Amino acid sequence: MVITTGVDIGSSAVKVAVLQSPKGSGRERAGTRVLAKVVERNRRRDARQVIELAYDRALSEANLPREKVDYVATTGEGELVEFRTGHFYGMTAHARGAIFLDPAARAALDVGALHARAIKLDARAKVLDYRMTSQCASGTGQFLENIARYLGVTLEEIGTLSQEGKTPEKVSGICAVLAETDVINMVSRGISTANILRGIHESMAAGFAKLLRSSKVEGVVLVTGGLSADTGLAACLNDALHKQGASKLDVRTHPDAIYAGAIGAALWGAYRFEKLAFTPGLADIQKEEHLP
Amino acid sequence: MTPEQIAEKADALYHDLDLGRVKQFRDEHPGAKVIGYLPIYAPREVVDAAGMLPVGITGGRGQIEIIRGDAYFQSYICQIPRSTIELALSGRFQLIDGFLFPSTCDVIRNLSGMWRVLFPEKYVRYVDVPQNFDPKVGGKFFRGELGHLRDDLAKLGGRPVTDDDLRRSIVKYNENRSAVSDLFALRNAAPWRALALESYLVLFAGNVLPVEEHTTLIRDYIAAVNASDRPMRDNARVVTIGSFCEQPPLGLIKTLEMAGCYIVWDDMTLSKRWLTQEISTEGDPLTAIAEAFLTHSHSNAVLYEPRREKGDALMDIVRRTKAEGVVFAAPSFCDPALLEQPMLTEALDREQIPWTAFKYSENLGQFQVIREQAGTFADSIKLWSPA
């Protein structure tokens, strides 16, 4: 068995997944089991400290010592993980994680704290194309987290509350600063929390739907990243796609989709571990006998 | 010293646009002259033999705001002449007594003319190099050019430059070339230990250090790296090409490493390793330098190579370094690098070597797009290449 860990370092949370996959299972890694998964929010703490904490918790949950891990794969801000073996770019990791969680997926919509990405992929999790939101923080997890704090609701409550909103208020979908001003005005005008949240979700969903359409994705889209557990957002996204004439897209969520990056990185790590071990050319160049 | 400490020392030299180390040389050697040279090839041995300090002029390194420099060039000209003019007009080259403008491209050649007009009190020479590689033709021509340079420097320094002076300098530069070559071998064998950014800074220090001191710095760095214990990472081994003149910002090199690339070979400091082999210390030293240019020049975009297919040298490097991919990192508007690129990519495509390309300028400050491009390139090599 090959034991690998995936560490996804985001700007608001660190996600760790511990995986066990059969030897010789190639890129597909059929028979892979997730032994543990942990999410640790940063909460303004030192990122390296949070990583260590999350990593130790995950290994403890999997009942494994560090030395049993064959490959530590990172994604996101991987340079913060000194003990990493290799790093995979966010899109590559999310694409692989999406296929693992939902083999029918042909696109992933990675909605993180600071940006969103529509990733088109094939059945092998190879990234075919992608589109990314602009640099503005509006329509991302960090923005939603700030609004939730202003409104006094927890992140877990957002989805359910939003779906209760029947007369949503329009929110600026372009600028986070303007959107926050909109929300403050709404609160002072007595708009209900449910309608405010629904309005925000609709604004975000309209942007994501455009992103998916412009990337020409087809079939099943799995929402991954920090906002993947937000059922209110997924509902609004389906509505937005319908309104924009892209109702053939099947937007799905998965309870573990927040770990997609970590799981994807760990799966690629397992593949690389075996490739490095069994490809003579690659193993040779890493021998120190070439030193002058 | 640790590799980090040595790199820190080199980093301080890199960031010192006021040339503090050059001032120190002048203080230590009263009356000695300083000769600046632009990229790429300059016969540093001749300058050193004249008892002068050759100083590499490498642009503003993104540390100065260019105001006056822009007034001298059209918008389609690269960044290095702008920042070079800006540095000169801001008085930062006052310590430099003369300037060599190598035959790199039209921009550098024209800069030599501008220099004569702007700074008539300075010694200025355009270093022409042979386009004919027959020793009886190009060799004779270049020997003549080197002779003129020697005579000019002798006049400037107020003392003759003897053959023995030249031989002593050739030996010093041969030792430096050997150290540089060992550093590249180390980077190729253990890129996780000799990091590209550190190696770059150590080589870059050769722009202002006297050659013996630079050789010692490289040797110290190699020893420190060999004594260090740095973890090996699963990165893609890449060659970067196209950065031989205007230098990339340090952030770009760091970005490539952070994106999962081990840079096992690059042409960023080509002026420090133009010659691939030692210069002979036998016979007439100027003829030896000329012959070394004809026979041991590193293949590159500005070298006229009628007998060799473009791309052959790059393929040799890829094979020798066991690189898994090539990154074309060329300055915007760099004619030599960008005009050569299609011929090189054709050669890579023939051999199914993956490559990616982007452009930079020395004052580039945002690396997110390059990070994405390099990150996905490294991933594609690791996950989808047939090897």
Features:
heterodimer; A: 292 residues; alpha/beta; Nucleotidyltransferase, domain 5; 5-stranded mixed β-sheet; 9 helices; 10 strands; disordered C terminus; B: 387 residues; Rossmann fold; 4-stranded parallel β-sheet; 14 helices; 11% strand
Strand content of chain B: 5-15%
Strand arrangement across the biggest beta sheet of chain A: 3-2-1-4-5
DSSP, total strands of chain A: 10
- The proportion of residues in beta strands of chain A is 15-25%
Cα-based radius of gyration of chain B, to the nearest Å: 20 Å
Largest interface: A-B, 31 and 27 residues
Structural class of the helix and strand makeup of chain A? alpha/beta
Oligomer: heterodimer
Query: What is the CATH topology assignment of the largest domain in chain A?
Result: Nucleotidyltransferase, domain 5
Poorly predicted runs of 5 or more residues of chain B = none
Please provide the ordered H/E string of secondary-structure elements of chain A.
Answer: EEEHEEHEEEHHHHEHEHH
Named at the architecture level, the CATH assignment of the domain at 25-165 in chain B is: 3-Layer(aba) Sandwich
Helical content band of chain B: 40-55%
Query: Which structural class do you get from the secondary structure elements of chain B?
Result: alpha/beta
CATH 4th-level superfamily of the largest domain in chain A: ATPase, nucleotide binding domain
Overall morphology of chain A? globular
Average pLDDT of chain A: 86
Give the terminus-to-terminus CA distance of chain B. Answer: 39 Å
Strand tally of chain B is 8
CATH class of the domain at 25-165 in chain B: Alpha Beta
Helix and strand sequence of chain B? HHEHEHEHEHHHHEHEHHEHEH
